[in-house]
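Q: What does the assembled structure look like for these inputs?
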Amino acid sequence: MATLAVEQVAATLEGLEETIIHKLIDRAQFRRNLTVYRPGQSGFEGDAVSSLFEIRLRQHEVMDAEFGRFHVPEERPFTSPLPASRRLVSIPENILTIDDYDSVNLTARIQSDYLSFVSQLCADGDDLQYGSSVEHDVQVLQAVSRRIHFGAMYVAEVKFRSNPTEYRRLIEASDRIGLVSLLTRPEAEIRILERVREKVAYIQARVNTSVRSLVDADVVLNFYRDTVIPLTKDGEVLYLFNRRNPRD
Amino acid sequence: MATLAVEQVAATLEGLEETIIHKLIDRAQFRRNLTVYRPGQSGFEGDAVSSLFEIRLRQHEVMDAEFGRFHVPEERPFTSPLPASRRLVSIPENILTIDDYDSVNLTARIQSDYLSFVSQLCADGDDLQYGSSVEHDVQVLQAVSRRIHFGAMYVAEVKFRSNPTEYRRLIEASDRIGLVSLLTRPEAEIRILERVREKVAYIQARVNTSVRSLVDADVVLNFYRDTVIPLTKDGEVLYLFNRRNPRD
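A:
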C-alpha cells in the first residue's frame, strides 16, 4: 500500500496556495461584470437560458473531460454530463481508499461561495471584458477545487491511518460531530490563514497600483476561512463515510 | 478620433507583466514533460498526428473563438481555421488605424520561441502531469501573445502620431531599418528588463522552496529580451506597413 506523510500532504496544499492567489489577483484585474452571471444574458447564440459564466464553465469542462482531467482524484467536475476521456491518463499510485472519487464532490458549494465572493474580490462596475472575466473565473474555480478536494481526500486518509481505531468507531456510529472534532486542528487552521494573508500582501507589496488592481489580503483570508477550510473539512467527513471497507 | 497617451499604453504593458510572470511560475511547477510536444504521441483518440500540446491549443482556441476572443485587436489566434463567434462582443472604441488586425500576427514565432524556452523554464524530466502542463502552456502563450500584440499595435500607433511626417516618409520608402531605428528606445527596453527581473525575484523571494519550484529571474529576463521585446518591435513594423491610408 502506498504511503504518504501528513507533512507531504500539507506541503502540497501549501504549494497550491500561490496558484490560487495568482489566479485570484488576475481575475481582480477585471471588474465584477455581474452581467456574465445572469441567466439568459449570455448573448450566446443558441442558448437563451444559461449565463455566460455557465456556458464557459461547461465548455471548458467538456474539453478537460476529453483530455482526461477528471481521472485525477482531486479534479472533480462542476458540470455534468461530460464526455468520456479521449486519451489514456496515467494516474500515479495513490493512498486513497475510496471507490468513487465523485462521492467527495464539493463543487456546487465551491461555485456558489465563489460567485458570492466575486463582489468582494473585484472592483464594482462593468468594463465589458466579459470573455476574460469568465475565463479567469474558471481558472480560479479549478484551482480552488483542486485544493479543497486534494485536502479533503488525502488529509482524511492520512489522519485515518494515524488513528484507525477511533476513526472506525466514529464512522460506524455515523458520528459526524465526533469526526469533525477529531479532524479539526485549530492551530493548523490559524497557521494557514496567517500564511495566506501574508502571501497576498507580500506578492502585491511592490505592485504599481496605477496599472494593477490590488486584492485586499483580508478578503482572501476570509475566503479561506469561510470557504476553503470548512469545505475541505466537510470533504474529509464525506471521504471517511465513503471510505472502502473500514476493516482493510 | 480616440486618443491614448504613450504613458497609458506603457502602463497597460507593465500591468500585463505580472500576469505573464504568474503564469510562467505556475507552468514551472510541472516538469518539462517533453512528450507533450511530440507529434503523434498525444495518446489522443482519433489523432495520430498532432502533439498533445497542439490538440489542447487548437481545442482551447475553438472554444475561445466561439466566445468571440479574436474580435479583440490584441488577441490574435495561434491556430486556424477557427469557428465564428457565437456571441456579440462589445469592443470599446480604440485608436488603431488598421483594417485587418491579423496582418499583425506574431503567434507562429511566439509559439516556436516559447517551446524552446520550456526547457529553461521547467525542471528536467517527466512527472506524467501532461494535461496540466499543456493547460498551463496555453495560458502562458495567450498572456505573452496579448502583451506582444497589444504592444505592437498600440505602441506603433502612438509613436506614429507623435511624429507622423517622419513615419510616413519611412513607410512610403519601405525603409524597415529606418523604422526600427525610429521606434527603438534602448533606455525603455533596459527599464523593462530590470523591472521584470526584479518582479520575478521579488514574487518568489519568500516562497517555501520545499513545496514550490523556483523560476530563475534571469531566465524570464532573457525571454523578455530575446522574444517579447523583439517580437513586439517586429509587430510595430508590421502594423506601420499595414496602417490604413497614411494620409488620414
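The two ends of chain A are 11 Å apart (CA to CA).
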